[in-house]
Amino acid sequence: MNEHLSALSLHEQIKSGERSAVEVLEASYKRIDAVDQQVGAFNSLSRELAMQTAEEVDRKAKAGDALPLLAGVPLAVKDNINVQGYATTCSSKILQDYLSPYDATVTRKVKEHLLPIVGKTNLDEFAMGSSTENSATKITRNPWDLERVPGGSSGGSAAAVAAGETLLSLGSDTGGSVRQPAALCGLVGLKPTYGLVSRYGLVAFASSLDQVSPFARNVKDTAALLQVIAGFDDRDSTSLKLDIPNYLQSIDKPVDQLKIGIISELNGDGMQPEVAAAFQQAIETFKKLGAKVHTFSIPSIKYAVASYYILATAEASSNLARFDGVRYGLRVEGENIYDTYCKTRAEGFGPEVKRRIMLGTFSLSSGYYDAYYGKAQKIRKLLKNEFDKAWQQVDVLICPTSPTTAFKIGEKKDDPVSMYLSDIATIPVNLVGIPAISIPCGFDNLKLPIGLQIMGPHLSEEKLFRISQAFETATGLANLTPAELTAV
Ligand code: GLN
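# glutamine complex -> structure
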């Protein structure tokens, strides 16, 4: 791929006939062939499907037919989102041979917009993790430093874009799985308001938190991809019925009288010093843009990670009950049906998934329900009230997306609690259901990217894009390309 091009300008070139969609797709596969052996972003490729779409784009462009937004721009899709006729493995042994019988709603939408789907990307098994190391399939490496993790759980989707294999990808974000890898890979990632994007056809992890979310290399491309996938869907009972604004139309409008909040619990203290410094720098940039900055306390944030790991695991234990060797995927024959369930799940699920099923089942069991699940629900409500109070005084809240830059492969693998804590800044957003974006805001001493998270009230995506665009223009931190892979 031409790494210096944005998805929107590539789309314009395809529209005008300057480049053909087929040639662009071939460049994408050429790049994948050249670097994915090292990066390991993809679980599988869908060349035939992608080529059909690219050919259709070229036919339409030649005939002078109107082309939908982003038509012809190759897209990678996280391997927990269904694409009809292709594998959806969730990077789990239990689904290794599972073929999707239908398209997810987001898949249908990207197909309608004629984005060639190049393949399915690696993830932490069932989207549980922050490093993509919990995959049963393979290791995905960070294109900025191949000895480091790309973040997770959507690490494959992030690495695919950072390595220039595609310009756009889809992930899913339950507690930070798009924003954190975006931060660690120098990308933009947006977790939309809960209910803005359909979850139909996304394999459920924690249904009250999951959202399909876009990755790109700059703010405008991210806004364009959200435009493609957002909207009401009667197949998802939590889908919001509303008109979707034109995100690109307003994106260059100046942000006047911007009021920004800093959360005292997430102001960089205790984080990697370079992350804290880049965050301070970001605050200065906003001040130069005319923003007024206030500091707030959101006291319940200190309980957010603990509450999330009760609620998310409780929902996961229920959602994953369907993988029993009878209805989906792997089946390990036992002496009787109970034995078959046990053997299938023992062999099919990896250690992190098992840990979460056990934790979730425990916290939902009678006798413990009130003490754990009930308490965690109360924290969720408290958090929401505290965020609502903040919105009465500021437009957005900002904090570092991740307390550290990309860590070494293996560094946190055997320490689940330290891994869980890397989501401290992203998890509250999912618990409250609000949108948040991660954008690049600098580099550490090793030249690894640092992410800034901007959070807004429900359905404030338009505003988040505008503020991010102003920041991106002011800093020039867009379309970042890791040096390590440019020689390939
Ligand atoms: N890292 C978090 C977890 O392990 C979030 C995962 C996600 O957003 N899917 O649960």
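# post-check
The mean pLDDT is 95.
The pocket of glutamine is lined by residues 127-130, 153, 173-177, 205, 312, 423 (CB under 6 Å).
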